[in-house]
Each structure stands twice: as structure tokens, then as C-alpha cells.
Amino acid sequence: SAVISQKPSRDICQRGTSLTIQCQVDSQVTMMFWYRQQPGQSLTLIATANQGSEATYESGFVIDKFPISRPNLTFSTLTVSNMSPEDSSIYLCSVEVAGETDTQYFGPGTRLTVL
Amino acid sequence: AQTVTQSQPEMSVQEAETVTLSCTYDTSENNYYLFWYKQPPSRQMILVIRQEAYKQQNATENRFSVNFQKAAKSFSLKISDSQLGDTAMYFCAFMKQRDYKLSFGAGTTVTVRA
Question: Tens of pLDDT along A7-26?
């Protein structure tokens, strides 16, 4: 497994602003992902964060709204842009660890509330 | 697209008793993985157990075990000797081999009573 941290753990933001969420892993990982969990719902994959290239987005998610960076093998950021109350969710990063293919471990999540 | 169904929104169990959570899935794939994740109120998603579809033997992790029925596309989780710390939302998830995309069920809330 891996130790995964996310910052911030929670935030309350005003509509129209943007928030950047950081995900840091204590070891090199092969894959990093970002998920959204809306209130009372299950998890939905937003995108795969690719090192050194543009992220791969799932249907319904676009780069302008959720820009993602991954400058190295252990760090990624997700920005939620031009926020509205509908963006209030828990955002989680997950990683696939080298040597444990096809298994994802999750970070502690960031609880975002948009007023 | 794969569909994962958890038909029990909530389950309650007495401490030290056993509870079984159901999960069914729909796929045309032959090689895939199934998972159970636990999400306590702290919201951290914790991997409980992993099953490879090509393995007939059911996976176990301490007090957690699964009943994997590939033909029936069923993947239930049994929690034995339930503890208060088992109180959480439990999600069943499916992944095609080398696809990276996890498909989650709606979740089952488990409450362990003292």
C-alpha cells in the first residue's frame, strides 16, 4: 500500500472562486486518479492524472472545470474552477502502487462546501 | 459499461455477530477484479478485500471474507465477530483487468450495535 495525504482536508468556498486540492504519496506510484463523491452518493471517476501530459477525463468532466496537474510520480493537484453549490462534494485521490497492479488505494479526501 | 448493485442500503448488527452484505454485478468480461472498500465517518476509503475473477478460492482478510460466485455474478462480503469499529459505509467495486476505472455500487451502511 502507500501513505497518501490530501490538502486541505476540508474547505468552505464562495461561488465563483476556485480551489486547488493537493495529493501527495510517500512512494512512487504508477497511476493517480481523482474521484468525486457527491453527498450521499457513491464515487465517480473524474480523471486519470498522467505524469508530464494532459489528464484523461471521463465523460461529463472537462479540463476547463477540473484542471489537473501531475508534475512528478508522487504528487498531483486537482482544481475545481468557478465553483457553484453543485460542486459541494468529497474529492478523493487514489493511486495504483508499483507491484500491486489493478488495486487502488485512496487518500483521506477533501470535503468541499460551496456557498 | 459495468453495473454494480448493492441492494441493501442499510444493515444493523449486534457486536460479535456476523453480517453479510450482498453485491451483484453485470459484465461480459472474463478477466476482472472485485473489491470491497470501507468508508467510516472519517470518510477515508479503506480497501477491505480484493478478489481476482480467475481465482476460484474466496479471498479472506482476518474477520472479512467473500463469497464469490462468478457464474451468478455475485460477490458478497461477510463480516464475522463484528466490532464497533466496523461501523461504516461499505462499497462494492468492479474493475476490468488493466482498465484502471473502478465502478462502484451505491453502498451499504453498516451499523454495529453495542
Answer: 999 999 999 999 999 999 99
